[in-house]
Write a structure and sequence with these properties.
By secondary structure, the chain is of the alpha/beta class. 22% of the residues lie in helices and 22% in strands.
């Protein structure tokens, strides 16, 4: 998992997850997964750094997964935006 910072991140459940790499460490991911979710996901949608990373990754990423209700729309270049 990559994130803006390596620190615990809230989920919709009782668990937290912690990235082991930052966006800068993985500029060209092989896979992008959009798990969707509730309040933590909605909060993340307003994060400009996350949006910029997803838009950049969408230009080259060969595999994109989106689980309903994923909050980020189209996985193609230039189309990552809140749904």
């Amino acid at each position: 998992m990559v994130a803006e910072r390596i620190e615990p991140t809230a989920t919709d459940g009782p668990l937290t997850v912690t990235a082991d790499r930052t966006f800068g460490d993985v500029p060209d991911p092989a896979v992008v997964l959009d798990p969707g979710g509730g309040a933590p996901t909605i909060k993340t949608m307003g994060n400009q750094v996350v949006g910029d990373y997803l838009r950049q990754a969408a230009e080259t990423v060969p595999v994109v997964g989106r689980c309903a209700p994923g909050r980020w729309s189209s996985p193609r270049p230039g189309c990552w935006r809140p749904a």
